[in-house]
Amino acid sequence: MSQTYKFKSLEIAKNGKEKKETTKDPNKLNVYEVGETKTIDFELLDGTRQNFSYAHYITSWIGKDGDERVIKIFFATHLVTIKGYCLDPVYEAVASLKLKKLKANNVRYIKSIEEGKTYIIMIEIRWKNNQLDKS
What we know:
mainly beta, 4-stranded mixed β-sheet, globular
C-alpha cells in the first residue's frame, strides 16, 4: 500500500514562488502589524529601523498627552515612546506580545486616515538616559 503526499514546500520549490492572496491598497498607510513574533520592529520617520526582542520586554504604559495618546514600552536597556492617535490596539498588541512592526508617519497625512483609526506620529528610542533617535 502506497500513498502520495503533497507537501506545500515541494510545490513552492517546483513553481518557484508561493502565491500570496493578499492585496495591498497603495493609498493605505501601513501603521502597524501584528502576529506571532519574537521581536518588535520600529520604523522611524527617516526610515531608520530598530528591533527589540520580546525577551528584553519589561512592561508598557499608555496615557494621554493632550489630544494625543502616548505609549511607553520599557525594555531591559531602552525606553521606546510612541505618540499618536487611537493607540489602544497597539498597546493591546504589545501587552499580548504580538506587535511585529510599528511605523511612524508624517503628521501631514493624518487627514487621509479614517476617524478612529490608529496613527503614529512619533517614535522615540532612548538608551541609558541618552537619546538615540527621534522621529
